[in-house]
Amino acid sequence: MIKIFDKSKCSGCHACAMACPKSCISMERDDEGFLYPNVDLDRCIDCGLCERACPIISKNIVSSDTKAYAAINKNEKIRLQSSSGGIFTAIAEQVIANGGVFFGAAFDEGFDVKHICVDNVEDLTKLRGSKYVQSTIGDTYKQVKSFLDNGTEVYFTGTPCQIEGLLKYLNKKYDNLLTSDLICHGVPSPKVWQEYLQSKSSSKVRSASFRNKSFGWGNYSVLISFEDTLEYKSLAKDDKYIKAFLSDLCLRHSCYNCVFKSKNRASDLTLADFWGINNVAPELNDNKGTSLVLIHTENGKEMLERISSGLVIKAVDVDLALLNNPSAVKSVEKSKKRNSFMQKIESENFDKLVEKYTKRTLLQKVKSKLKRTLKKVFK
Ligand SMILES: Cc1cc2nc3c(=O)[nH]c(=O)nc-3n(C[C@H](O)[C@H](O)[C@H](O)COP(=O)(O)OP(=O)(O)OC[C@H]3O[C@@H](n4cnc5c(N)ncnc54)[C@H](O)[C@@H]3O)c2cc1C
Ligand code: SF4
Ligand code: SF4
Ligand code: SF4
Question: Within a 10 A sphere around the Cβ of 308, how many other Cβ atoms?
């Protein structure tokens, strides 16, 4: 049966809980706000199905011949509302037009992030846009299975660990299933997200965007509206939540030791920002957002063909495309200050805490200046 001795070996995907025939695994939050499985030993029959469904204990063997594309959605309005090039929306619209359903991460009423099922274009906006918080899978894997068994086309989106969890749970190939994962930096704690929101206003949140493009795709900003009419807006580089996220202070333990990072994936396709686009396809960069699309399977290739009339698209070399996106293949390093930061998140002022923990020492500043100078000299 599942027992978590080392938190870095659990991504919180819910596959074990969904696979248990006795429903005796509950997902419970730890002190940091992340969900982990907990087995009710009195009801467990020691069948081992949870371990077989776990994408970390029984990792999928992945072999795909990945192809890479730079792509933008021709619908500029949709692209501006999307984090990158708006490819997720293009696929979701296609699936809906075919009578299908899709799953992805949305804010709930309290602005926690949860996976939901959508079957119409109006609700598509709930899933559009990156939410830099771990999304709770809940019982969506079970819902997916039920749709698939009924012959409905299903498009499931999520982080690589969520996609691999779904595939392990299903344990069977379905031709009516399409999956897309992301190039994933890692997921911050839902508790840190809530502490950050409360530090901005005690009023309820009305809307939140992590990737507002009013200053451009490369210079994105965070925009949050509260019911007391306060509107908070900050360039991402100055925002304390994004600073904590990108300084790797508040990610799940498994994200520092991620087994899902690879050029080849179990998903049908991977969506990402095309960072470094100017070195590969500058003609596709207008600073409104360009996607990197990696195609891993025939199913993924077929979907790209189905949506291609709505896209501007160019095939590119996969290794060149990944040069500026190290999170595709490599986990971020665990900051030595991470655990101490997480322990203080409830008791200290959010902005001051992040400022304190991201301040660079004199030695760090000298080191990075030296690095930059050496780079210039040996160029
Ligand atoms: C936590 C996280 C880390 C990321 N790290 C990187 C990175 O290091 N490099 C990179 O190039 N791109 C990264 N991305 C992906 C990138 O931000 C875009 O989501 C992606 O390029 C798709 O953009 P789009 O314009 O096609 O669609 P959009 O409409 O912007 O994206 C919507 C899609 O993202 C999914 N999504 C949103 N939030 C979450 C979440 N919390 N958990 C699971 N799925 C979610 C939705 O379900 C939907 O499928 C990350 C995304 C997330 C959520
Ligand atoms: S061993 Fe079987 S019964 Fe026990 S927790 Fe795992 S799946 Fe459930
Ligand atoms: S990774 Fe997923 S399946 Fe494995 S123990 Fe964690 S929640 Fe369960
Ligand atoms: S970094 Fe790895 S473990 Fe963390 S959310 Fe992304 S895919 Fe999952």
Answer: 13
